[in-house]
C-alpha cells in the first residue's frame, strides 16, 4: 500500500518535494516506532537517522541533474 501512495504522490509533487519527503522517511519511522512500541532509541540510532535525513535533503537540493550533452 505504501508503494502505491508513494507512486501517486510522485505524480502530483515536484521532484524536490518528493525527494525531501523520501529523505524524511527514516525520521518518520523512528518516531512511529517510539509512539507505537515505546522504546526510546539510543543516541547512535538518533544520530544516524539525523545524518541520513540531512544527506537526503542535501542530495535533493544540492546535486544538479546532468545536462543532456554530457554523460552522467
General description of the model:
Helix 2 (15-23) runs antiparallel to helix 4 (43-62) and helix 3 (25-36) packs antiparallel against helix 4 (43-62). The model has no long low-confidence stretch (mean pLDDT 77). 72% of the residues lie in helices and 0% in strands. It has 4 helices and no strands. It is mainly alpha-helical and 72 residues long. The N and C termini lie far apart (33 Å). It has helices at 2-12, 15-23, 25-36, 43-62. The protein has a domain at 13-62.
Topology:
Elements: H1 2-12, H2 15-23, H3 25-36, H4 43-62
* Secondary structure: number of strands: 0
Radius of gyration: 15 Å
Largest sheet: none
Oligomer: single chain
Query: Can you count the helices?
Result: 4
Quick structural summary:
With 72 residues, the chain is mainly α. It is built from four helices and no strands. The model has no long low-confidence stretch (mean pLDDT 77).
Name a few traits of the molecule.
4 helices; flat; 72 residues; mainly alpha
